[in-house]
């Protein structure tokens, strides 16, 4: 670097060092000699936070001044992970801060590791919300994320004797340096009670809701910097408080516990994230969470709109509200309540405003995951909102009942109320009707929406369903997770890689360049060494960094088919034992993921992976040729370590069942080859990276449907495949569970007689695809060519692209791409 530039950096480093020291002393209250790594983490976080706040206040000011339309992203989950490296990266302070800390004898990597993950999400849906927040800031969209500040995020997972145990997560126990409490921003949230009809001065009737119970929503704001720090948005999370936290009279009369009852009841709303991610809990507390945050967020944004523009009727011009799945869909009824009951807007006008303001993203078609609420529960908890839903439904059905094809069957399918098993409100229908656009998260998923759950609704609103294929933020999933690869790529494409991911295409020209391949491979090898160290530390298993790292990390679900992967491991295990001296490819199967505490089968699958690993890893006959490891407590931070070290990415869901997947994108970007079905975004990944560079196998979504309609008995497939029958037989007979030989009898029986996820039907195709992977691995130049082409062609999967599409086609807001200063 030129001398002047070096000097400027030197001054920056000194200034950062002094700021960190000042934060340590005056904000943390510790001396250099007494400071723990966590104290240094807080001091460093506070120092970068100062820069963030500087830019944050100007962003807020500029949005006000320009009167720009705002985007509100309503999500019950934000799976953020750690923020220190993210904030330093986006504020372009990382090198200077690392150097400043080094001068103080402190290692930035150590500080990185002491930060607790913000694990306010279950999986894909929550992580997508976090990537979107970052991309909206990067594109200078004036956006707010709204959610719940859970005291306890997703449970911590421990594995004991191969079994998952759940422990409470406690991310706030050491404080949270990124958030600002806003004690002045409090919204009352009502529940229950009754409704009075009053006559307005103009003679019209008005419904007045008198809640029987009120809690308060308290705001906590976290600034979200975009790439290069030019624009900073706000993530506003609500915490629940009792209106009257202590009944002093009751306390004084000796009832010390009773005096705190209201407080416990109110605060339970934001106490803990629901850990199921497909089967709706259907519990009252969950509905209370949904209404709590939807109502607080709407009150807050309507108040902001009125204070800026004076008239609630212009809301749709100045606000776009995106519903992240149906979890916040009650917001549609809440906006109608606000407009009609509180602002005296006529119903039809209010409905037009509502539809023009809202849009809805669907994230799953699994029937058991589609939210419905029992009508009696709704009537008790939200009586006015239930009335509003009835009225929306009546007007909607009146409109369609005039049509010639309006059979009873069709009206039942279109109704907001499902009458088939007790009366229940269909939240997907409510979200669909109350929105101007509805989207799926991959092309295949969006197409399937039109033929399955939203088939009838789509026919009365053709064109409402659109596709917005998911994306990921390259700042976190490339630069922060894999800085060495990012530097190499920037040498080729220039240092605007994170401004415009499409420049990655330039890397394709080097796919066959042997010296580039070597450098690319060396980076992978170093990442694998780092992961091997971590695995050794955490579970005491030693990995060979030259083995093929075959990775399957995601929530544990039958449809994601971890069992298919385990079966292949067992099959190969038996083959190696039978012919130990063939030229086997050394391979490590890496699993990680959490199972919902109540999902018995998923927990059994975790145990199976652990049991199989235990036997295989300690069998000397294998000479280390195969290892199977299960890494406990999968979270965002662990993903950041595993993905850059992966050679093979397992994306093997039953076709038609994975809405998109986003892990698949993170792996391919970092140069892992994918073995996968034609499901979710895998289809589009194949189209971008080219079919020679991805290992696609198995039934297509159409074939799955056809096959299932013929029956899901696995016996034929098992009979046709000796490898499969042997693998199943050894699992069923207790080879991997000698202490309890019948442990997996039920699992194997289910695959044999009732194989809903078509594991047996796809086994041979999967097994053969794995052999094709082996052949490619033996041809190292061909392997690295494919890996490099994956990286080169993944630019389109940047969440910047996804967000630009939402901005243009759904929100109608302008975007400003980042640029070098
Ligand atoms: C449902 C429930 C039910 C009540 C308890 C809490 C809870 C939490 C989440 C869910 C729905 C989860 C749906 C989901 O995560 N879908 C995933 O969304 C990703 C982002 O679009 C997508 O990549 C994955 O394929 C899809 O499974």
Automatic annotation (TrEMBL):
Q: Which cofactor does it need?
A: pyridoxal 5'-phosphate
EC id: 2.4.1.1
Q: Name one GO biological process term.
A: glycogen catabolic process
Q: InterPro entries, alphabetically? A: Glycg_phsphrylas (IPR011833), Glyco_trans_35 (IPR000811), Pyridoxal_P_attach_site (IPR035090)
Does Glycoprotein count among this protein's keywords?
no
**What PROSITE patterns would the database entry show?**
PHOSPHORYLASE
Q: GO CC terms on record?
A: cytoplasm
Q: CDD domains under this entry?
A: GT35_Glycogen_Phosphorylase
List the keywords (alphabetical). Allosteric enzyme, Carbohydrate metabolism, Glycosyltransferase, Pyridoxal phosphate, Transferase
> What is the uppermost EC class here?
transferase
Residues where N6-(pyridoxal phosphate)lysine is found: 666
> What GO MF terms are annotated?
glycogen phosphorylase activity; pyridoxal phosphate binding
| A Pfam family this chain is assigned to | Phosphorylase
Reaction(s) catalyzed by this protein?
Answer: [(1->4)-alpha-D-glucosyl](n) + phosphate = [(1->4)-alpha-D-glucosyl](n-1) + alpha-D-glucose 1-phosphate
Q: Which PANTHER family match?
A: GLYCOGEN PHOSPHORYLASE, GLYCOGEN PHOSPHORYLASE, LIVER FORM
Task: Tell me the function of this protein.
Answer: Phosphorylase is an important allosteric enzyme in carbohydrate metabolism. Enzymes from different sources differ in their regulatory mechanisms and in their natural substrates. However, all known phosphorylases share catalytic and structural properties. Allosteric enzyme that catalyzes the rate-limiting step in glycogen catabolism, the phosphorolytic cleavage of glycogen to produce glucose-1-phosphate, and plays a central role in maintaining cellular and organismal glucose homeostasis.
> Which family, according to the similarity comment?
Belongs to the glycogen phosphorylase family.
Recorded protein name is: Alpha-1,4 glucan phosphorylase
Q: Which gene encodes it?
A: glgP
């Amino acid at each position: 670097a030129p001398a002047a530039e070096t000097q400027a950096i030197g001054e920056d480093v000194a200034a950062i060092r002094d700021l960190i020291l000042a934060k340590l002393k005056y904000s943390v209250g510790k001396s250099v000699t007494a400071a723990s790594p966590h104290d240094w983490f807080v001091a460093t976080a506070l120092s970068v936070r100062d820069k963030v706040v500087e830019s944050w206040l100007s962003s807020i000011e500029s949005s006000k001044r320009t009167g720009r339309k705002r985007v509100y992203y309503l999500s019950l989950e934000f799976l953020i992970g750690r923020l220190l490296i993210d904030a330093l990266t986006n504020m372009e302070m990382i090198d200077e801060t690392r150097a400043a800390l080094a001068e103080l004898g402190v290692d930035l990597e150590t500080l990185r590791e002491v930060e607790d993950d913000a694990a306010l999400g279950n999986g894909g849906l929550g992580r997508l919300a976090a990537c979107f927040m970052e991309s909206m800031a990067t594109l200078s969209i004036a956006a707010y994320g709204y959610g719940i500040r859970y005291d306890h995020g997703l449970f911590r997972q421990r594995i004991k004797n191969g079994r998952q145990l759940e422990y409470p997560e406690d991310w706030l126990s050491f404080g949270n340096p990124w958030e600002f409490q806003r004690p002045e921003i409090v919204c009352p949230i009502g529940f229950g009670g009754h409704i009075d009809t009053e006559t307005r001065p103009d003679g019209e009737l008005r419904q007045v809701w008198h809640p029987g119970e009120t809690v308060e929503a308290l705001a906590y704001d976290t600034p979200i910097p975009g790439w290069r720090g030019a624009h900073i948005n706000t993530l506003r999370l609500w915490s629940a408080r009792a209106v009257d936290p202590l009944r002093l009279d009751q306390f004084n009369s000796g009832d010390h516990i009773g005096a705190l009852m209201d407080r416990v009841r109110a605060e339970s709303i934001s106490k803990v994230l629901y850990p199921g991610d497909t089967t709706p809990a259907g519990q009252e507390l969950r509905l209370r969470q949904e209404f709590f945050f939807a109502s607080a967020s709407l009150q807050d944004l309507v108040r902001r709109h009125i204070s800026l523009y004076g008239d609630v009727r212009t809301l749709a011009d100045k606000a776009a509200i995106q519903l992240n799945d149906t979890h916040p869909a009650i917001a549609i009824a809440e906006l109608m309540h606000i407009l009609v009951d509180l602002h005296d807007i006529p119903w039809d006008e209010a409905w037009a405003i509502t539809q023009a303001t809202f849009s809805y993203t669907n994230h799953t078609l699994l029937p058991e995951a589609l939210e419905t609420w029992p009508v009696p529960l709704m009537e008790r908890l939200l009586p006015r909102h239930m009335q509003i839903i009835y009225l929306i439904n009546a007007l909607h059905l009146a409109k369609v009942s005039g049509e010639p094809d309006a059979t009873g069957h069709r009206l039942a399918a279109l109704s907001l109320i499902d009458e088939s098993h007790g009366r229940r409100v269909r939240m997907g229908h409510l979200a669909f009707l109350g929105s101007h656009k509805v989207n799926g998260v991959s092309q295949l998923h969006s197409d399937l929406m039109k033929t399955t759950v939203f088939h009838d609704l789509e026919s009365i609103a053709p064109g409402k369903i659109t596709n917005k294929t998911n994306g990921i933020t390259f700042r976190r999933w490339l630069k922060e997770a894999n800085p060495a690869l990012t530097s190499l790529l920037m040498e080729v494409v220039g240092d605007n890689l994170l401004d415009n991911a499409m420049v990655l295409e330039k890397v394709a020209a080097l796919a066959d360049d042997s010296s580039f391949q070597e450098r690319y491979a060396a980076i992978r090898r170093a990442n694998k060494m780092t992961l091997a160290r971590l695995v050794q530390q955490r579970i005491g298993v030693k990995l060979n960094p030259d083995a093929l790292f075959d990775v399957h990390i995601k929530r544990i679900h039958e449809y994601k088919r971890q069992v298919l992967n385990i079966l292949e491991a067992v099959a190969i295990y038996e083959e190696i034992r039978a012919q130990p001296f063939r030229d086997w490819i050394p391979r490590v199967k890496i699993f990680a993921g959490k199972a919902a505490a109540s999902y018995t089968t998923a927990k059994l699958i975790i145990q199976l992976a652990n049991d199989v690993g235990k036997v295989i890893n300690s069998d000397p006959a294998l000479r280390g040729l195969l290892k199977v490891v299960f890494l406990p407590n999968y979270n965002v931070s662990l993903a950041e370590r595993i993905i850059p070290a992966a050679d093979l990415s397992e994306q093997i869901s039953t076709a038609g069942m994975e809405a998109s997947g986003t892990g698949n994108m993170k792996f391919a970007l970092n140069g892992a080859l994918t073995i996968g079905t034609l499901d979710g975004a895998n289809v589009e990944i194949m189209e971008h990276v080219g079919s020679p560079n991805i290992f696609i196998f198995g039934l297509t979504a159409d074939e799955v449907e056809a096959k299932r309609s013929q029956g899901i008995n696995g016996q034929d497939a098992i009979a046709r495949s000796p490898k499969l029958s042997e693998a199943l037989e050894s699992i069923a007979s207790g080879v991997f569970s000698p202490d309890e030989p019948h442990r997996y009898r039920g699992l194997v029986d289910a695959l044999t007689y009732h194989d809903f996820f078509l594991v047996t039907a796809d086994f041979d195709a999967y097994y053969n695809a794995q052999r094709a992977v082996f052949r490619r691995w033996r041809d190292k130049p061909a392997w690295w060519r494919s890996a490099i082409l994956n990286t080169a062609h993944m630019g389109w999967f940047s969440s910047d692209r996804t967000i630009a599409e939402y901005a243009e086609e759904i929100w109608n807001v302008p975007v400003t791409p980042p640029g070098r200063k």
